[in-house]
Amino acid sequence: MPHEAPMVNLRNSTIRTSPAPVNLTVIGLALFCLLLGALPAPALAAVDVVLALDRSLSMNSNDPRRDSLKGAELFTELLQTGDRLSLLTFGHDSQILMPLKTLDDPSRRNQALDLVRGIVMDGTRTDFSAALRSAYRTLTAGGRDPEAKRILVIFTDGQLNLGSEAATAQARAEIIDKLIPRFQAAGLQIHGVAFSPEGDIDFLRLLTDSTGGQAFRAERPEDIYPAFVKLFEQADQPLTAPVVDGQVEVDANVRELKLLVQRDPNGAPTRLTDPSQRELTAGDQVEGVTWRSTEHFDHITIQQPEAGSWQISGQNQDKRAYLESDLDLEAKLPVLATVDEAVTVAARLIYRGQGVDERLASNTAFSATLLDAAGTPLKRIDLRPDMSAPQATRRHQGPLSFTAPGPYQVRVTAESESFQRTKILSMSVLPADQPPATSDDLLFDDEQGAAIAIVVGANLVLLVIGGIAGGIWWWRRRRRKLEAQRDIDDLPGA
């Protein structure tokens, strides 16, 4: 089984920082922006996330500083405005703290943060099956966005344990035989973190590998924060920009820049320098800038950032840049495949929800890089335009094949002289003889179960009818005997 993937290193990505000469690419983008400038920016593709947190009693000793809950807060803060979040905890049962709610109002995000902070670790068991059932019902309920990606994120410090070997074995069988196939058929991904040496990473990998997700281990409390960052990147698949030598390039189409900077071990404060050479620190009150500092991370959000180079101080190389931009990259990839089949990676640029001008697309290089579970690049392919599709919906695409089962990541990049857009997708490759379940498989099982129920019910009805008929026959037979006996008694001399 492959090891858990480390944080993706974007430092190897390159972007031209020198001013690009005026060309058709820039002109095409400018004209396109002018044409669509009057349109409101639509919401990006939303993600429905159920965050399931282990509340077993062991968390009190394994996580006395409640770093797991602080990591869950960071995860909640990183989710995008259009995402929907549900919170549940699990121990001997599962409890839904918050149903799916869109994070389009700061009060809702604050409500989620308050609920996370108030979690009490009082569970006497660790029942993954209860968490999976609750999450499945939440993610498949009516009223959802059919285009939304649906994710379950699990954080646990223990193993499946229902108090007895028999009950635990029964729950494990239910998960493998019933719940995982339902997640597969519905297209639901599971991602997770196993915390502490007692965390069952192998069982968690069974859940994640079977549904196209990723599993990570956090050995120490300080490992929890990077783990939740990985969970966010896998679940939300945000638009990213490379951070090279502490510098990130921002173009004029970026509406929001989020920076996540791991604090230096020596405790030196993080400093941020904008394109106008103005220096910002955590204590500054600057309009449009939100700066939250924790022991391990600085989380900085800049609304309508100035175009140009933003410089981040510090020796620590773990710096992330997430973008919300009018010029977005749409990337598609199946979450599950078998080792004997090739999958198609498809990508296109969209501006405020619409396909971009043909000249802009043709002057942009699209590529996909396959990464193994350790984050090591395995192969890179160029994505070519699908000329059979109309321009408005045309995507650049290419095939990817695999030599071994396991979890993979695919880094999709669109790059021109004036911008770069990158997204990282996750998927799982299953053995050739273990294809994922489909809705037809579940329909067959449901129909089979319904048929059995009908047969059993019909037999019960027949038994009841037979019992009634038998009772009537016995009663009539006995009545005839009594009448015959009375006739005999009425005979003369009887």
Automatic annotation (TrEMBL):
Domain VWFA, residue spans: 48-235
Protein name as annotated: VWA domain-containing protein
InterPro entries according to UniProt: CLCR, VWF_A, vWFA_dom_sf
Transmembrane segments: 450-475
Matching PROSITE patterns: VWFA
PANTHER family: CALCIUM-ACTIVATED CHLORIDE CHANNEL REGULATOR, ZINC FINGER (C3HC4-TYPE RING FINGER) FAMILY PROTEIN
Keywords from the UniProt entry: Membrane, Transmembrane, Transmembrane helix
Entry keyword Transmembrane helix: yes
Annotated Gene3D superfamilies: von Willebrand factor, type A domain
UniProt cross-references to CDD domains, sorted A to Z: vWFA
